[in-house]
TrEMBL record:
Gene3D superfamilies in alphabetical order: 3.40.1190.20
Record-annotated Carbohydrate kinase PfkB domain positions: 19-305
Stored SUPFAM superfamilies: Ribokinase-like
Protein name, as recorded: Phosphofructokinase
Organism: Azospirillum argentinense
Family (UniProt): Belongs to the carbohydrate kinase PfkB family.
One Pfam assignment: PfkB
GO biological processes: carbohydrate catabolic process; small molecule metabolic process
Keywords: ATP-binding, Kinase, Nucleotide-binding, Plasmid, Transferase
Catalysed reaction equations from the record: beta-D-fructose 1-phosphate + ATP = beta-D-fructose 1,6-bisphosphate + ADP + H(+)
Protein encoded by which gene: pfkB
């Protein structure tokens, strides 16, 4: 086969706990009071599903990259995922279980500029399904080089799930990204993935100490990077994100944008950085691309990006500072 006809190695995202995001528009939302929603939207979600959707929707130099989604879906409310996969041309290698994928509630208060997430536990995964998924992931590693392991780990799946996958995927020579929290992140970090993207709270939990200010976040990110994780991205909500690689640390601050919902901004950031890496970009452009993807999805509900000209404009408008 000539180099030109060799298929571009693809990206696989793994979502153990997929979700349908139910966004409720609740002006002036107050906990402990009677609230009224003025609008409701349901979109396919779950961290890896979102990353797959953002990547499959992005235009990359050198042509589209094949994107495969695997993980676990409930077969009773599958339509929204099937529709997303079809619309974006995402290859579907998800396992189906009896029952329904969880519906996560996102309360958006545009007046108070707040988003309240209520994430449900999700399906119980039988041991044989979990083992079956490991086989699918291993099989996908024969033809794909980049793996994104994202989101919470449902009941029935061990907290070591991502750590096991990192080890198996490294044996196959894959580049592995982990975006998780709590014990699954702690175990995964011990297996040294190639990239992690905690937010500040997840990083503080991982290191077992509070991170009081940005300087402490940067120090903690450097520590994590020095422990053997090539690229550490710590997202800080509206303040931007810190990118650390090989002793270099950058802060990337998004330009002001209209915010419809912040749900999925972290997943968009992961997708943007992966897209940049697939194009061989260096740290600064990874930071710009990741931040542009994150800023680009804020004005939309669900895993949607603006057109590529707008993304290019956002990329240029990101402020990058050497730390
Ligand atoms: N309110 C906001 N205004 C501008 N940018 C934001 C806002 N919230 C998130 N972002 C962008 O999205 C990125 C990821 O968001 P963050 O909330 O930190 O992730 P996560 O949802 O994973 O906790 C941030 O680093 C930032 O670039
Ligand atoms: O698996 P978890 O940690 O419960 O998170 C699932 C939720 O996170 C999301 O993927 C959004 O994540 P981010 O806002 O961190 O990008 C939602 O689509 C989903 O409801």
């Amino acid at each position: 086969m000539s180099a030109l006809s060799t298929p571009r190695p693809g990206v696989v995202t793994v979502t153990l706990n997929a979700a349908i995001d139910q966004t409720l528009d609740v002006p002036g939302f107050a906990a402990g009071a009677v609230n009224r929603a003025v609008a409701e939207t349901r979109t396919a979600g779950g961290k890896g599903i979102n990353v797959a959707a953002f990547l499959a929707g992005a235009s990359l130099a050198g042509g589209a990259v094949p994107v495969t989604a695997t993980g676990i879906l409930g077969e009773e409310n599958i339509a929204v995922f099937d529709a997303l996969f079809r619309r974006r041309g995402i290859r579907d290698r998800c396992l189906r279980l009896p029952g329904r994928s969880r519906v996560n509630i996102k309360l958006v208060d545009r007046e108070g500029r707040s988003v309240t997430d209520i994430n449900l536990p999700g399906l119980h995964v039988p041991a044989e399904s979990w083992r079956g998924l490991l086989t699918v992931v291993d099989d996908l590693a024969v033809t794909n080089r980049t793996f994104v392991l994202s989101g919470s780990v449902p009941a029935g799946v061990p907290d070591t799930a991502y750590a096991e996958m990192v080890t198996a995927l490294h044996r196959r020579g894959a580049f592995v990204v982990v975006d998780a929290s709590g014990p699954p992140l702690r175990h995964a970090v011990a297996a040294r993935p190639d990239m992690v993207k905690p937010n500040a709270a997840e990083l503080a939990e991982l290191l077992g100490r509070p991170l009081k200010d940005r300087a402490e976040v940067v120090r903690a990110a450097r520590e994590l990077s020095e422990s053997g994780i090539a690229l550490v991205v710590v997202s800080l909500g509206a303040e931007g994100a810190v990118f650390v690689e090989g002793g270099r640390a950058l802060l990337a601050v998004p330009p002001p944008v209209e915010v419809a919902s912040t749900v999925g901004a972290g997943d968009a950031m992961v997708a943007g950085v992966v897209a940049a890496r697939l194009e061989g970009m260096g740290l600064e452009d990874c930071a710009r691309r990741g931040t542009a993807f994150a800023a680009g999805t804020l004005s939309r509900l669900g895993p949607e990006l603006p057109p590529s000209e707008r993304l290019a404009e956002l990329m240029r408008a990101v402020r990058v500072e050497e730390l």
